[in-house]
UniProtKB/TrEMBL annotation:
Binding site for GTP: 96-103, 142-146, 196-199
Keywords of this entry: Cytoplasm, GTP-binding, Initiation factor, Nucleotide-binding, Protein biosynthesis
Family, as annotated: Belongs to the TRAFAC class translation factor GTPase superfamily. Classic translation factor GTPase family. IF-2 subfamily.
Function: One of the essential components for the initiation of protein synthesis. Protects formylmethionyl-tRNA from spontaneous hydrolysis and promotes its binding to the 30S ribosomal subunits. Also involved in the hydrolysis of GTP during the formation of the 70S ribosomal complex.
Organism this protein belongs to: Methylacidiphilum kamchatkense Kam1
Residues annotated as domain Tr-type G: 87-254
GO molecular function, one term: translation initiation factor activity
UniProt-annotated stretches for the region G-domain: 90-238
Predominant cellular place of this UniProt entry's protein: cytoplasm
Cellular compartments annotated: Cytoplasm
Keyword Nucleotide-binding: yes
Protein name: Translation initiation factor IF-2
Length: 379
């Protein structure tokens, strides 16, 4: 039998591949799921994990277990019917300079053709989609790179668990690249760098790495802790590895949410749609959002008339990290606004009324010129 891959070794020692990759990373070994590990590395990682291995001379690289097999598995916890905290999918936002390939990369991941269908190829809004890789879900948000959309990107960063910073290998670090890094840092969100367009003759991934290193994103191979992936959205190179790295990062973040109870969600975009009225695309953050729920969102409210998933299908309920379009609000809420479920319709109307009053006051205050010592003589 030949050498053992990361996936196989993880199965042998009873941990998840991503945990193994993480341990390897801490040993400065940057391995992918399918990478073959040599004996020294296997010995090293097993030592770290406190596992004794025997190497069978005839089966040269296959490690054979002797007890104990890693950490003893924790005793099954007593049943906790009240706890519905479960792991949830990471919410990942693609950010970067205009035309560096965010939408194309998302297309390559979804194997669809969104970028080609966009007006002028510029992303006009934030799309959100869920993708399943090896049985695990990832929710992706696409943001526009155009300067006019700073606020949208800031919101993208704050709704997200991981930012994938897309940098074109031929173009390098540009103003919106820096801006995206700042948004991610402000929101304290980890960054994975995707160097895109490596298929182009002018591609220079090394230059991108050194540019990013200068601003504090140091690749692991240079002793830093930022994951860099080299990809081509068009030639579909490195896409699987990028997804693995996202899942690895997500694993480290240990993202969890309550899957029961009244939902809380964040608006990522809203529209008034012909035949549908106001719609809001939200990402559920906790609880379960159901058709028929009474929801409150900013200064709007309503009974959820329909929920539409990212494939356009009507669904009855939505769970944490799912993007879903909500129909039934009496207006289009602002992106970034929180949507909550509230059983008591009377209370909802009161809260909305209060918010509208507060807004009116704000507006009047900003319209009434303030007389101050500074401006009193300026009239
Ligand atoms: P905005 O949403 O406008 O900020 O742009 P974007 O970052 O979403 O870029 P988009 O995916 O629209 O791609 C911009 C252009 O780059 C398109 O013409 C793509 O075909 C091209 N492109 C994207 N990825 C690659 C790649 O890997 N290789 C090559 N050669 N071209 C690419
Ligand atoms: Mg785009």
């Amino acid at each position: 039998k030949g050498p053992v891959s990361v996936k196989e070794l993880a199965a042998l020692i009873g941990i998840k591949p991503f945990q193994l990759i993480h341990h390897l990373m801490e040993m400065n070994i940057f391995a992918s799921m399918t990478q073959l590990l040599d004996e020294g590395v296997i010995q090293g990682v097993c030592q770290r994990l406190g596992i004794t291995i025997q190497t069978d001379k005839k089966e040269r690289h296959a490690p054979v277990h002797t007890a104990p097999l890693g950490k003893p598995k924790a005793q099954a916890p007593p049943p906790q019917p009240l706890s519905n905290i479960k792991s949830r999918a990471p919410v990942v936002t693609f950010m970067g300079h205009v035309d560096h390939g965010k939408t194309s990369l998302l297309d390559a991941i979804r194997q669809t053709k969104v970028a080609a269908g966009e007006a002028g190829g510029i992303t006009q809004h934030i799309g959100a989609y869920t993708v399943v890789k090896d049985g695990r879900s990832i929710t992706f948000i696409d943001t526009p790179g155009h300067e006019a959309f700073t606020a949208m990107r800031a919101r993208g960063a704050s709704i997200t668990d991981i930012v994938v910073l897309v940098v074109a290998a031929d173009d390098g670090v540009m103003p919106q690249t820096i801006e995206a890094i700042n948004h991610a840092r402000n929101a304290k969100v980890p960054i994975i760098v995707a160097i895109n367009k490596i298929d182009l003759p002018g591609a220079n991934p090394l230059r991108v790495k050194s540019q990013l290193q200068e601003i504090g994103l140091v690749p692991e191979e240079y002793g830093g802790d930022t994951i860099f992936c080299e990809v081509s959205a068009i030639k579909k190179i490195g896409i699987d590895n990028l997804l693995d790295m996202i899942l690895l990062q997500a694993e480290i973040l240990e993202l969890k949410a309550n899957y029961e109870g009244n939902a809380k969600a964040r608006v990522i975009e809203s529209q008034i749609e012909k035949g549908r009225g106001p719609t809001a695309t939200v990402i559920v953050q906790s609880g379960r959002l159901k058709v028929g729920d009474i929801v409150l969102c900013g200064i709007y409210y309503g009974k959820v008339r329909a929920l539409i998933d990212d494939t356009g299908k009507n669904i009855k309920e939505a769970f944490p990290s799912m993007p879903v379009k909500v129909l039934g609000l009496n207006g289009a809420p602002l992106p970034g606004e929180e949507l909550v479920v509230e059983k008591d319709e009377k209370k909802v109307k009161e809260i909305v009324q209060e918010r509208i009053e507060a807004l009116k006051k704000d507006r009047e205050a900003s319209l009434t010129p303030k007389v101050t010592l500074e401006n009193i003589f300026q009239a």
